[in-house]
Amino acid sequence: MASYKGGGGGGGGIPLERMSVEQLRALKEQADLEVNLLQDSLTNIRTATNRLEIASSALNDLSLRPQASKMLVPLTASLYVPGTLDDSQKVLVDVGTGYFIEKTMAEGKDYCERKINLLKSNFDQLVEVASKKKNVADEMAVILQAKMKQLASTSS
Amino acid sequence: MSSLTSAVRDLQRDLENKTNDLSKLQKDIAKNHQVRKKYTVQLGENELVLKELDLLNEDANVYKLIGPVLVKQDLAEANSNVRKRIEYISAELKRLDATVQDLEEKQNSKKDAILKLQQRIQSIQTTKGKA
């Protein structure tokens, strides 16, 4: 315990090859955790992008409907009530923190587009970071295996 | 001989106390990180809202969800509310940063003290073994 210098600083100045098996293992576990976290974030972004794309296509569909057409309005997950479509040219957009903005159909579509692009660029950036981290973790795994083989061969 | 054993026992008790302090410090640091994450997410969300509000014309309608009610809000008022929230969250984040730095310094000094104590205990035990 005394020879392991605290969480993140462990791999800082020492090259990987010179570290002991325990230190390597701990560092590899840390790197694996980080990779998992990044993968989860990637999945979240993908889900959000999907939902936005569904919203965008729903908007498109809505804009095609004439006014006063009959529709079923969901009140709960299992209860729908009949209603008529009012003005489909205005939509309320949820922009976060409890604020809703009234926009025209075109602005609403534009909002969806913008959000989808933002998420896509975040996703790309994250993919880069995640793959770099994964490479580091894989490298550590290789070195760890080599070290363990070395130990096994010297002790036998 | 017995004075040495009691000295070791005192040191070990001191070690236990310091280790408890250290784990409490680490819990505080972890809590700090959690609160920090929450605030950072809220800050990001509020900045998105501010960007959307800035894109609007003067006459666009803005509504705020208060409980189950959607209430019409004045654009200028909504802007200033969001800005004030952003300022507040940034101040909170800065305060948390200072706190966590202070906590980390304390944590490091505790770790050093624990290390020294362990070394002292070890050296006493080895001299006891030799004698």
Automatic annotation (TrEMBL), chain A:
Matches recorded under InterPro entries: PFD_alpha_archaea (IPR011599), Prefoldin (IPR009053), Prefoldin_subunit_alpha (IPR004127)
Highest taxon in the source lineage: Eukaryota
Stored Pfam families: Prefoldin
PANTHER family: PREFOLDIN SUBUNIT 5
Family recorded in the similarity comment: Belongs to the prefoldin subunit alpha family.
Name used for this protein in its record: Prefoldin subunit 5
TrEMBL record, chain B:
Coiled-coil annotated residue ranges, if any: 1-28, 86-120
SUPFAM superfamilies given in the database record: Prefoldin
Database matches in Pfam families: Prefoldin_2
InterPro entries the UniProt entry points to: PFD_beta-like, Prefoldin
CDD domains registered for this protein in UniProt: Prefoldin_6
The UniProt record lists the keyword Iron: no
Superkingdom assignment: Eukaryota
Keywords from the named record: Chaperone, Coiled coil
Gene3D superfamilies cross-referenced by the UniProt entry: 1.10.287.370
Family classification: Belongs to the prefoldin subunit beta family.
PANTHER family: PREFOLDIN SUBUNIT 6
Name this protein carries in UniProt: Prefoldin subunit 6
Organism from which the protein derives: Stylosanthes scabra
